[in-house]
């Protein structure tokens, strides 16, 4: 068995947004959308701060699809468009998606975007990995763990480009993998654990 996952070390994240931009470019994400976001915790604006000057602090929270083991989005999808594949990733079959947005309502992580209009790009052309499937108007889309790359033994682009080495990618079903060892080290936690979705993205301090 294989269970692909990402560990994110929040202490190393500098909020540079490189992961967000690289994800957008690699996956041909349309204008006005991001699959991978970096939030500033406790703030409603990017790069805000918590506290009162001069005692300010800033903590970043990178977030995308959590590729949950017990995915709420999959449970509510009426057509089977959302599914778990053989490597543990939550994926979308765009040909089956009817645009009902039940998956978006069910996801506790707000991890999907929706193509309300025909996708447009400032380049006026597609970009990134040519193997990534096109998404039409009226479908949901999200992080795929760079399926086209990881199917060929490479890392997701967000992991590949992180300048602070805040991200680790690997197989949780391999007890000797680096990511399995990180999960066992005692400081790993997941977002919204109380939801019972068992994310395969986890965070380290």
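^ structure tokens above, recovered residues below v
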């Amino acid at each position: 068995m294989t269970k692909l996952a990402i560990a994110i070390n929040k202490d190393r994240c500098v909020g540079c947004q490189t992961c967000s931009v690289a994800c957008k470019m690699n996956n041909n994400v349309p204008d006005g959308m991001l699959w991978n976001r970096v939030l500033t915790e406790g703030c409603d604006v990017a790069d805000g701060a918590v506290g009162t000057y001069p005692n300010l602090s800033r903590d970043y929270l990178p977030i995308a699809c959590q590729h949950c083991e017990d995915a709420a989005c999959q449970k509510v999808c009426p057509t089977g468009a959302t599914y778990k594949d053989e490597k543990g990733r939550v994926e979308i079959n765009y040909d089956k998606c009817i645009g009902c947005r039940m998956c978006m309502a069910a996801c506790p992580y707000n991890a999907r975007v929706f193509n309300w209009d025909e996708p447009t790009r400032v380049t006026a052309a597609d970009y990134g990995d040519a193997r990534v499937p096109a998404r039409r108007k009226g479908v949901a889309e999200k992080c795929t763990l760079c399926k086209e790359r990881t199917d060929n033994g490479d890392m997701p682009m967000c992991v590949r480009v992180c300048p602070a080495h805040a991200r680790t990618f690997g197989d949780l079903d391999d007890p000797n993998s680096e990511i399995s060892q990180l999960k066992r080290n005692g400081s790993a936690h997941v977002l919204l654990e109380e939801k019972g979705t068992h994310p395969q993205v986890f965070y380290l301090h």
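The domain at 4-204 is CATH 3.30.70.20 (Alpha-Beta Plaits).
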